Every structure is written in C-alpha cells, then in structure tokens.
Amino acid sequence: MIPRHFIPGIAFLAAAFVLSFLTSISLPYLTALDITRVHFGDGLKIPNSPIPLINQLRFGIWAFCEYDASNGNRKCSPEGHGYSVPFGVIDAKGNLNEITIGSSWTRGLAVHPVATVVTFIALALSFSSHVTATLLASIVSFFAALLTLIAFAIDIALYAYVHHELSKFNGVNVNTGPGFWLTFVSLVLLLLAGCTVCFGRRRDSDNWTYGGNEFPLKRLWPFNKS
What we know:
It is built from 5 helices and 9 strands. The protein is α+β, with helices and mostly antiparallel strands.
C-alpha cells in the first residue's frame, strides 16, 4: 500500500505527465496547443503557400499551421522533426522582406516528448513502496524537470526570435501559445513532485511500521532524552 505522504507527489507527477503529453502531441494534431502564435492584422502572403492570404500562423512541436484570412480554414505543414517557415512581409515602404524561421529554431522542440517519457518513468516509479524505487522516483523527477526546463528554454528562444523578426512590421502581433504555458506549469509540478517524493521518503524512513501502525523511530531510540 502506498503511504499517504507519497500521494501528493504522485498527483503532481500525474498532472505534469498529462500536461507534458498533450504539449508533446501539439500541431498538427492538437491545433490549440501551439508554442508561438503570430497574428497578421492585414493578412500575409507566404511564398509557396496554398492559402492566398493568412491572418494567423501557429508554431507547434512537429509542424506549423496557417489560417486563411477569408474563411478561417487551416493548412498545416507535413509533420516532422525540425521545420522552416518562409515569410514574405511587405513593409511600410512597399518593399518585400523575405524572412525565414529556420529549422535550427524548431528542431530543439523535440525535447518535449523526451521529457514526457522521463516524466512517465518517474510516475511509474512513484507507485512503488520500495525504498530504492521511491529514491529513484525523486531523482528521475528532478531529471524530468531538467529536461522540461531545457524544453521551456527552447520555447522561449523560438518565441523571442519570431518576435524579434516579425514585430517590427505593422499589424503583426507575436504571442506565446497555450503549449508554452503548459510547459511552464509542468516544470513547476515536476519540481514540486521531486521535493514531495523526497520529503515523503524521509518521513517514511523516520517511522517504523508494525501491525499496520506507524511508530516514530526517535521514540524507540533508547538514548533519546525527549
């Protein structure tokens, strides 16, 4: 039976896994869970795009999606590891500026599913009442938090680069997507889970269980004056 003081850590890990899993699916399957979102007030023409004029562009883990300014229909790029997005933006002087968000800025997004797998391993280990398994659950939780931190840093870098390249044009707004913030919440939950499992293991080691009852070891120690 799992001790009660391990339950909060398991709950944190389960929530972090669900959020990380949903974020890892991302575009083109879950179009609402993008990392960076760009709005074009007057519409934009992207070279070689089947959509004549787009009003929104979303960056996901595996693909990007364009939204038609006339009817709101979306068209997503073929899914894959690392993709590039070419832009053709007309400035205030009527000049065409070609900008490309290269695959070097999106390739690192694949860290998200890796963090998800490690989070699942930590969650599986946390259900064990064995001493070694609970210790490993805490260590793996912190490792998953480290990977999620790296993924979040890559998300920030992508957002910052897209914002830097496109915000200088009129009518263009660059915002963080829901997947960006789900990653941040997952990071916080993993840190809480690692600490909770670790402290729960310490509390468990301070007690001796016999006949279904817990006895503090400090009281059983004959040289304890308290």
